[in-house]
Amino acid sequence: MKTKVLILGAGGAIAQHVIGFLQDNKDIELTFFVRNASHFSANQTLGTHLIEGDVLNEQDLDRAIKGQDIVYANLAGEVDKMATAITATMKRKGVKRLIFVTSLGVHNEVAGKFGEWNNRIIGAELVRYSKATKIVEASGLDYTVVRPSWLTDKDETDYETTQKNEPFRGTEVSRKAVGAYIAAIILDPARDSKASVGVNKPGVYGDKPDFY
């Protein structure tokens, strides 16, 4: 039986990489959820579905989540409200596995000068991402919170991970590498269950990303 995977925010760059890693896997059935189908560029293949809707619209979300095995959310904006809506709908529909992308810094886990720089640059956004992270962690679902470092478009898949109680040091990671990590969880849903996981490129440490 195929594993049914819903991708919320399927038009995003990381999600596009996840789709690329999974779309030819015959054991996976993908559903793409997007706000505007006309702007969606992923190739639809046999075994994929497309839903146009709004995550904060209860009927749209109900329709999308019903019958899924895994929900992967890669969203921006009112992510705290979205986390509340997604977790509530999943519990109502009996769907347990959630992968939810937030940000480095939500646990105040980025130490030293890099942490100070990160908080100065994205501190306002971290408030919502931190709230969303707490909502997911308190949901009772089988979740993985994914906390990527500063993102690049490099064509590479190298990454290392840290857990919630470990310092976050790496200053960058490619979107493709984050996509590879998320695809690996989808293929092995027991991986990093009930965990908040930092994702960064190995060996790239400093006071801020080199590209900034």
Automatic annotation (TrEMBL):
Gene3D superfamilies from the UniProt entry: NAD(P)-binding Rossmann-like Domain
GO MF terms held by the record: biliverdin reductase [NAD(P)H] activity; riboflavin reductase (NADPH) activity
Boundaries of every NAD(P)-binding domain copy: 9-189
A matching Pfam family: NAD_binding_10
Entry-linked InterPro entries: NAD(P)-bd_dom (IPR016040), NAD(P)-bd_dom_sf (IPR036291), Polyketide_Oxido-like (IPR051606)
Coiled coil segments of this chain: none
Protein name: Putative NAD(P)-binding protein
Species name: Sphingobacterium detergens
